[in-house]
Amino acid sequence: MSEKPELVPGETRKLEVLTAIPKNEGVDSAVAATRRVISALLHAGDRTSAEMGAVAAQLNAIADHLDEHNGPVDDRLVDMWSGEGVTRHDPITGAENAIAPPLHLAGREDGSIGGVVTLGLPYQGPPGHVHGGVSAMLLDHVLGVSNAWAGTSGMTARLTLNYHRPTPLFQELEITGRQMKVEGRKIWTEGVISVDGEPCVSAEGLFINKQVPRPR
Amino acid sequence: MSEKPELVPGETRKLEVLTAIPKNEGVDSAVAATRRVISALLHAGDRTSAEMGAVAAQLNAIADHLDEHNGPVDDRLVDMWSGEGVTRHDPITGAENAIAPPLHLAGREDGSIGGVVTLGLPYQGPPGHVHGGVSAMLLDHVLGVSNAWAGTSGMTARLTLNYHRPTPLFQELEITGRQMKVEGRKIWTEGVISVDGEPCVSAEGLFINKQVPRPR
Known about the structure:
The structure is a homodimer. The first copy, chain A, has about 220 residues and is of the alpha+beta class. The first copy, chain A, has one domain (about 10-215): Hotdog Thioesterase (Thiol Ester Dehydrase, Chain A). Chain A is about 30% helix and about 25% strand. Chain A contains four helices and seven strands. In chain A, strands 1-2-3-5-6-7-4 form a seven-stranded antiparallel sheet, covered by helices on one side. Chain A is globular. At the A-B interface, α1, α2, α3, α4 and β4 of A face α1, α2, α3, α4 and β4 of B. β4 (about 155-165) of chain A pairs antiparallel with β4 of chain B, so a sheet runs across the interface.
């Protein structure tokens, strides 16, 4: 870690490669509403007095309606991966993915990237704190985007996470990443999740410059 | 990795510590329906002809209804963590968490644990394959449950993931874990995600035997 430049908050500019413009903005609002439902169901739990049978029936009716309009999944995969590599579906930043918090990332002039996110009940591990696996998921993605921002991307080969202190729910987290070194097809990248300037989880990744082919 | 016993499918028995009985079964069905909505929205994407504005309004109405019945989040946190440590809310196995695939885990007589899961569009990273961060999230949790099954649990201190081959979507994945060693407060645990018997991602974790206090 000795070669690591300090990852400090700095001047940011829009990371345009990551912000595809939706062709149907209603999808993004439906996904945002689904995030509210996910959180409210967890908040409700199994001691709620809400009529959960009726809620389940309404949600199943919405899923049925969407399924009726959906074509074959193979066609959708081709569609998802068409264009200039800008995706809207990943589980960390994806506007179309209700699993994503979502994290919004911006590239910085110094070559690093960063974003802030506040995580609620769906991301809980220990009481009142972020699940260690969620931190790992966020950091793996941030390292991948750091590579894209630096201009040389690859697949994760090895990822090492160090947990320094519990990461709180309901507080603004800063997540930063930076590509450190490229040698041949190997790429080394680092990132950190911090709260109030104190590191909670840090990550070091080794990536290999290759890609899974896109579906056609 | 040389000391690693082979993690083979074997005789399983129910991992009772992980299967709390819901007090309101409707919650589980509402969460299952929400998983269908998450997946259908991703399948729809932003080129769908479905009336997404109407879908968003319906979903927001459901969230509003649930919010009206929900009490303070601090009370919910106390409730979540009451009882014998059996939780239903984590983002990997939680019946109340629509982010969870969910993965069902079972303990084995040989001290390992395992489960199978098939992941769809919400968990995608590279085209048609599981996001490396999702694999990390699943394995961190499986290592934690392996510790619970072995009888000595802790917080993740370091997690190392090795990615051997891309992990496919839409195919049954086997995930196994095993506690390897305990020395003082240090715990070493390993796990692997396999498809058709071939390892895709393996994990080694170091855990420290301490806990975040429960809310009261």
